[in-house]
């Protein structure tokens, strides 16, 4: 069960006299329930294309994408997306933004309010319910986006570089927050990043992608996020010998792939 | 540290008058200021083009303009037939306000003109905004309506005024329609391009919650197009006032445009200028109102 991608390829048709581009080549991937899958790679390696496939914004040129055995046909509330930026609605305040998905789904006002309050509390946004979102800091805006994605109780949470626009210190805090929420809600997550440290720290499964054509080059199982959820501190994990060793290995692999491509 | 440096920087400037004569240093100093700017004060950003307050300068300009105008007329440099004095305009205003012009009071003239312009404006918004949004949303509708709108948009209203009169007579219809057409194009095109203001992430987010196309239109695209629609409405009403005089050229017996044209035929220059000032004042007041509405309706404009 969970998400299954079988032999999926995406080919962008030829345009402006250029040859067709193979954005994703023969991708096989399974994300089991409760798994935290992190896609890592340089730009142009097809991470976002892969996320668009899972979200249902893009149909594969060949291959299948199945969620709990059923083919994915278009976007739907069982796969919420958290974007890097620009995804909040500035004419709505914090609580209205969080409840936006529920409103679209036609839930009554009282119910939406209740669910929104719950996730606002979970994301540490209490007290900012009626603030306009444009007055919040980048980190808080991102928490609003995550709260909004969680409200519709998705089977799979898709995160497209959600922390890419945050400063380094806010980013570390946000990583811990996302792991805590993941641990609490037991969601499956598909998370895109190009920070090696972030990928190693957060994932239970690391997907290293390579460009030209975009493809999955390596898959690793990761122990670190489990350790964090068992109570070890984030900095202690990131400073541990095996974390650093794996970080250097993965970096070496990525640079070797770059050279080869 | 910085204080010390400031002193060092200032030292050569103080020393220069000793080495060169006073006026040479002054010329060099003003050149210096033109070529490179000083650091900004706290609270400003260095190098922002055109930053600074303008209100005082604008007020001074207006006062200076009126003063020169008064001076020229008071010294009798220009005949009142060409340029009546500011007082004459004011007196004419009071005169027409109390006695009317060609048997109609100033308020009635202003009222009928405002009714024509705002009537046409409301009509143009009621048709232009939905059509513009539809053009932005649907290639079919854009394909159909783009050519006619782009074709007639650059034509001066005076050019098709005769056609309007031939087709719709000399009554209110042709007048309102003429103004309507001049407002319609900018409003529709503004709404059309406003559709593009929504970020693709906002649209994708809505779809990923299971939104329908209609919901995305209603809850994402329409609100994010609102700033551009309001701007287009401000531009549109401007075109409306521009077209007013043309609309009241033929077979009108009331209206500010009619008043200005008739007064000009009798060389009543004071009335002409007074009418122009009244039109400008109404248009400016409405623009202020629109800016206020903008601040209330889209306080988030340009902030995200």
From TrEMBL, chain A:
InterPro entries: AAA+_ATPase, ABC_transporter-like_ATP-bd, ABC_transporter-like_CS, ABC_transporter_ATP-bind, P-loop_NTPase. Pfam families: ABC_tran (PF00005). Residues 5-236 form the ABC transporter domain. PROSITE patterns: ABC_TRANSPORTER_1, ABC_TRANSPORTER_2. Keywords: ATP-binding, Cell inner membrane, Cell membrane, Membrane, Nucleotide-binding, Translocase, Transport. GO terms for molecular function: ATP binding; ATP hydrolysis activity. SMART domains: AAA. Belongs to the ABC transporter superfamily. This is ATP-binding cassette domain-containing protein. It comes from Jiella endophytica.
From TrEMBL, chain B:
It comes from Jiella endophytica. Its main location: membrane. CDD domains: TM_PBP2. Signal peptide: none annotated. Gene3D superfamilies: MetI-like. GO terms for cellular component: plasma membrane. The keyword Transmembrane applies. Belongs to the binding-protein-dependent transport system permease family. Residues 110-290 form the ABC transmembrane type-1 domain. It is found in: Cell membrane. The chain crosses the membrane at residues 55-78, 90-112, 118-139, 151-170, 176-199, 266-286. GO terms for biological process: alkanesulfonate transmembrane transport; cellular response to sulfur starvation. This is ABC transporter permease subunit. It is a multi-pass membrane protein. It holds the Pfam family BPD_transp_1. Probably part of an ABC transporter complex. Probably responsible for the translocation of the substrate across the membrane. PANTHER family: ALKANE SULFONATE ABC TRANSPORTER-RELATED, MEMBRANE SUBUNIT, TAURINE TRANSPORT SYSTEM PERMEASE PROTEIN TAUC. Keywords: Cell membrane, Membrane, Transmembrane, Transmembrane helix, Transport.
